[in-house]
């Protein structure tokens, strides 16, 4: 059975239907991410992290505080701003605590609110600016740490990693 969708009125044509995600992706000619094919362990680590970080920035580009803080599917607290804060927390944990062995306080996490990275992602321009600044500072630290590590087989100097294998750069 074929269904024909008619316009509500002759003066009001139906919009052209396009692929629903076409505005969610960057065309290959504009995509700043690599196509993979990294050679060697260090190039793979650096390239993979760079591409993942660029993906987050691409998804958030041009969005205001309200759009960044919009929850994906309520009651979930997931939002792009929450992801920026969460990734700052992830970079902070893995590079400062686990790999560098720094004794630093948790980021976007308290005893009362272990999900503060997402729960605190509110549509406030100051919160957005602080999240980006924090994330970029954590990324800069990570990049400097990786660049200054002569041998990626060197185990991390700390025991705060969740497992012994996670203390190695190569895992």
UniProtKB/TrEMBL annotation:
Residues 1-39, 150-171 are annotated as: Disordered. It holds the Pfam family MST. Residues 30-39 have a biased composition (Basic and acidic residues). It comes from the Bacteria. This is DUF664 domain-containing protein.
């Amino acid at each position: 059975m074929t269904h024909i969708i008619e316009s509500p009125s002759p003066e009001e044509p139906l919009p052209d239907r396009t692929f629903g995600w076409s505005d969610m992706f960057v065309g290959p000619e504009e995509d700043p991410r690599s196509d993979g094919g990294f050679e060697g362990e260090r190039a793979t680590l650096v390239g993979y992290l760079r591409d993942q970080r660029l993906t987050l920035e691409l998804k958030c580009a041009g969005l205001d505080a309200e759009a960044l803080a919009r929850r994906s599917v309520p009651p979930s607290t997931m939002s792009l701003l929450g992801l920026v804060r969460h990734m700052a927390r992830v970079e902070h944990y893995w590079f400062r605590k686990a790999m560098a062995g720094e004794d630093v306080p948790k980021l976007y996490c308290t005893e009362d609110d272990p999900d503060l990275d997402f729960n605190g992602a509110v549509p406030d321009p100051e919160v957005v600016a602080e999240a980006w600044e924090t994330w970029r500072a954590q990324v800069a630290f990570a990049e400097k740490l990786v660049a200054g590590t002569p041998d990626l087989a060197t185990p991390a100097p700390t025991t705060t990693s969740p497992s012994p294998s996670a203390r190695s750069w190569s895992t």
